[in-house]
Structure formats: structure tokens, C-alpha cells
Prior knowledge:
This protein is mainly alpha-helical. It contains twelve helices and ten strands. The strands form four sheets. Strands 1-9-10 form a three-stranded antiparallel beta sheet. A three-stranded antiparallel beta sheet has the order 2-3-6. The longest helix is centred in the N-terminal third of the chain and has 25 residues, at 3-27. The chain is globular and about 75 Å long.
Amino acid sequence: KSPGAYNDLMRDLRFVSIPVRRDIALASPDSPILSSLPAADAAAEQTKIVLGPLMPTAVEADIRILTENKKGWGELFTRLEDIASDPKNPKAAVADALLTTFYTGPRGGLIANLKGHEYKPDSGSIRVVPQTKAKRMAGEAGEAGAQKSGGIRQAAIPYNVPLNENGVGYIERRMKYNEANPDIVKFIRDSGTNHIFVKRNAKGKPTKVSTADMSQLLGEIEVSQPLIEDAVSEKKYNSLYPAEVADKTAGKWGEALARNFHASVGILELKIEGQTMDFLQGRSETSGTEGRSQTKKLGYAKRPTGFFTPGERDAQQQIANWIDSTT
């Protein structure tokens, strides 16, 4: 078994033991059985005694964004814009989905699946489901990775994320194209999903854009400067989905890197606070420039739908302006 599979098994055994340990402790606090069960916390000494230490997992690839190579990024965005602005190009919708993700930050899957009612033109924003921690059993420490729903509330509460002018433009361009093409209008109506990013497949039939489409398009674009590097191998790549990397299961590649780019520009180039980036990327409504005072924590100043501080709007537009400066 791989180290990851081994560690997953250890975690599952710990999960199963939590309610057993609790019930035994309530019935008989001095029971010797308790010493044979792992603790709720993975890092607890009792857990290590019973299950043993976690196995170290090898880092096979660690992809970093090379924001300093502005010429290369400019070539990428120019190519995407050329594709997106050509109504006869069957990949125009894919390019618009990528541009929206690069410029605004939410995960690529959210943008690819964005629906008409989730776009809010009055406030220049989109409705997102924040990434919350995975559901935990009682007593379990909060260490699971992020996912779209789950957590203590069982369901994440959607909130609005501000778009910059560019993001609004890409969404509006796609919606206008959809409205002008009867076959896409019919597809949207018949599917009942009202997707914004709709492409034509190899047979010319409308279908929803997928993250695989987005990565594939990025794989077709190679620029004159490296865009990313693998910190493990020290190799640099002039494409975000390089053909020379046969196994892309290790590390991030393709459309998933659009979000990393947005974050790298915001934090490394523009020095935007990480808390604001969390908000802009759809990770947490309780981030942003408002801070987390005790009053906020108690829920006395919840933001109305579509309300954004000037700092949040400005941060999102700063990122767009930086991208525009590369072309």
C-alpha cells in the first residue's frame, strides 16, 4: 500500500473508534479497554501508541507560478482572448471560462458550471458555495481538506463574490452569444440548467464546458517563457498543461492552476492580504477586508447579499489590471 492509502486507513480506524471510545468512557471511565483505543486527535500520543505513526508521503510535484515572466503570461492571455472573441471558434466558450477563472479567482469547476441565476449583474458578482471543511464525527479534529459542502452545518451557505470589469465582460460576452444562437438557447432550455459556458462539441452540438476542456485548451498553448516550475524537480514549463508531463496525477496542472495564478498575482505581486484573497476566491464569506472582530464572530454584522467593501472591489480590479498589463 502507498503511504497515502496507509494513512487513510489509519484515519478511518480512528474515526470508527471515536463513538466507541465515548460510549465506553461514559459507561466506565476506568475501563482498561480505553487504553487499547486511539484518541480522537491524530497527533495524540495515545493514537501513536495504538496505531503507530503516520507514514511520510513523498512530494512528487509542487507547482509554482512564475509571475515574473510577464511576457509569457501576456502571450497566454492574448491567445485565449483571440479564441474567446472569435464566434466561429468552437472553443470560444472554453477560453471565456478560463479567462473568467484567471481574472476572478473562484475554482474552475465553479466557473465551468456557472448558471444564469448565479450571475448577479446588478452587483457585478457571482453566487458561490464556499469551500468548507469535510464533515467530521463528534470529537474529531478539524484536519480534513476543503470541499464544496459539508462541515459542522452539513451544508455551506452561498454568498456573492465580486467580479472585476473583465470578469463581467467575459460572462456577458458568453451570455450574448448564447442568446444569439437558437441551438444553444434550445440546449439550455431543454437541459433545464441554464449554464452560461456552453461550447459546441466535435459534432457541432451544444454541450456544457468542463474542466477537462479547459485543461485541454491550455495544453494547446505554449508560450516563449516558462509559466510554472516544479519546485521538486526544478523543471520549468512553457505551458500550464505540458505535453511532456505524461502523469499529471501528482501536483496541479491545467485549469486548476488558474486559481493559483490569481492568488500569486494578488499576494506576491500586489501584496493583497490573504484574508481578502480567501473571500475573492470563494473560500470564506467571513474573510474579506471587514476582518473578524468578536462582533463579526457573533454574527451581529453579517454582510447583505451583494454588499462589498471598496477594498474588496479594488483588490479584484487590481488583479485584472495587472493581468492586462502583461498584454
